[in-house]
Amino acid sequence: MSTLSVRKFAISLDPQHVVDFSQPLDYFAEVFHDLGFTPSGTYSFRYSDHECMVKIELQRSPDGYYLWAYVQAIDEHEYRIRECADAIGAYVVSGGKKPI
To answer: pTM here?
Structure first.
């Protein structure tokens, strides 16, 4: 899939802006495991099938973690990111940037 474009999203508690989560790492590991993701590093989880690859990264913040999602697929597959956001009661922010 290396020739396909990658789309970046933020998963946030706010539907308009990137807001960090205060839950512990174990919480996210359990939620993403239940959605079929496997750990690909200490702060990242990966899902892959014949249609797409999805990677979720947790980035440390002052109060917990920012969540970033990357989708590599022929079409957008944004619904897969929405599924992840719904599982933690959050929203998808397309192309979100970390607050300054």
So the answer is: 0.87
